[in-house]
């Protein structure tokens, strides 16, 4: 996505822990299936089914779990391991944080167990797309304040009608670019972006 004279593109990175957690279920299924194959000595239905389920979960993770999400003038680009998905601003209904309470009464977006009004969830952002509000994960954990502020500025310029339904994170929250694999000297920018 090209940079413009106004707001700069913002990049949210997913955590290494989130990426590893997405691999655990397929690996466990493959391990149980391998043990079943070794014990039986020949293909049996249960290990074959477990291998198939593990394969499906692995493909879904590689195709749909974002490594980075880039907010820019034309929309949001979700970069997964095996594909890139561009979500244009015209299709995005809202940017939200599951589990965020932004106020009482009709302003309440979502609640989570035991939360008080005004509480901020530690979950990452999702893009709600289309009439059915299909959710696309943008980051698996909460972003830092500088990233949140840059997203808010970008939305005002790129898509003023798209609401940001997420509370601002606390000052102690680390930015998502701490999960970026660095080559050479780390960027000194408060909000990371891809070249």
Task: Please describe the topology of this protein.
Layout: E1 10-13, H1 16-40, H2 45-64, E2 66-72, E3 75-80, E4 84-88, E5 92-96, E6 126-129, E7 134-137, H3 145-158, E8 164-165
Parallel strand pairs: 5-8
Antiparallel strand pairs: 1-2, 2-3, 3-4, 5-6, 6-7
Helix pairs in contact: 1-2
Give the structural class: alpha+beta
Query: How large a portion of the residues is in β-strands, by DSSP E?
Result: 15-25%
Outline: elongated
Largest sheet, spatial ordering of strands:
1-2-3-4
If you compute it from the alpha carbons, what radius of gyration comes out, rounded to the nearest whole angstrom? 20 Å
Low-confidence stretches: 101-118, 184-190
Helix content: 25-40%
Mean pLDDT: 79
Biggest sheet character:
4 strands, antiparallel
Distance between the first and last residues' Cα: 9 Å
Order of helices and strands: EHHEEEEEEHE
Count helical runs.
Answer: 3
Please count the beta strands (DSSP E, at least 2 residues each). 8
Explain this structure:
With 195 residues, this protein is α+β, with helices and mostly antiparallel strands. The protein has three helices and eight strands; from the N terminus they run βααββββββαβ. The chain has helices at 16-40, 45-64, 145-158, and strands at 10-13, 66-72, 75-80, 84-88, 92-96, 126-129, 134-137, 164-165. The chain has a four-stranded antiparallel β-sheet with strand order 1-2-3-4. Strands 7-6-5-8 form a four-stranded mixed β-sheet, with no helix packed on it. A hairpin with a 2-residue loop joins strand 2 and strand 3 (75-80). Helix 1 runs antiparallel to helix 2. The protein starts with 9 loop residues before the first strand and ends in a 30-residue tail after the last strand. Mean pLDDT is 79; it is low at 101-118 and 184-190.
């Amino acid at each position: 996505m090209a940079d413009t004279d106004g707001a700069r593109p913002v990049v949210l990175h997913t955590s290494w822990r989130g990426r590893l957690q997405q691999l655990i279920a397929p690996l466990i299924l493959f391990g149980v299936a391998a043990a079943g194959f070794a014990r039986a000595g020949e293909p049996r239905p249960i290990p074959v089914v477990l291998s198939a389920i593990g394969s499906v979960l692995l493909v879904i993770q590689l195709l749909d779990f974002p490594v980075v999400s880039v907010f820019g003038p034309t929309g949001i680009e979700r970069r997964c391991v095996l594909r890139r998905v561009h979500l244009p601003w015209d299709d995005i209904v809202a940017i939200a944080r599951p589990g965020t309470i932004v106020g009482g009464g009709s302003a309440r977006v979502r609640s989570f167990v035991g939360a008080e009004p005004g509480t901020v969830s530690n979950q990452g952002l999702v893009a709600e797309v289309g009439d059915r509000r299909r959710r696309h994960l943008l980051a698996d954990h909460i972003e830092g304040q500088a990233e949140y502020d840059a997203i808010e500025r970008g939305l005002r310029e790129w898509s003023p009608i798209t609401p940001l339904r997420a509370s601002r994170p606390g000052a102690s929250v680390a930015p998502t670019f701490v999960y970026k694999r660095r080559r050479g000297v780390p960027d000194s920018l408060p909000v990371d972006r891809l070249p």
